[in-house]
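Can anyone check this?
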Amino acid sequence: GQACLSTTVVIPSSIAGTTIMSLNTYSLSSKGFTSVVVPSTVTSVGDYALFNNRITQATFQGDPATVGANVLMNNPVQTLTYAGSTYTSANSPIDESCFVFNSATGVISGFTRADPATVKATGEACMGLSLVVPAEIGGAMVTEISGGFQNIGLTSVEIPSTITKVSSYAFTGN
């Protein structure tokens, strides 16, 4: 086979007459892509399918029936188009629903920024570039940040005084 030198990937709807219907788990992760277009023929996207690239623009032309977790994690996505709707930092702010939070322990362990599964479920993309970590989520105090904000292009972070611990890698690559 030939090496792919482009950082833009447009997944074809078919190859040699065979319809492309899924992106498997980790299938296009860590490839250095900066832009991706997923055709409407794709009905299933696996966990971490596009994880850890440099994707700033992601387009899902359809609405896959199954969307895994963390599909675009560790990517500085600036524009996400999903099933005809476009999300940017200007029209999709960060709110409490964007955090993966354990109310019993007070730990934020993740963030659903530009996550197709979240967009599919809630219609929110959490694309803001300025992060204000809340002191409480759903009435429970936030005391720790264990991760989830790596390589997503944040321009500022405000952490409340309730936070007593932040992991050393929580905000790397911003």
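Reply from J.R.: I decoded it. The two ends are 35 Å apart (CA to CA).
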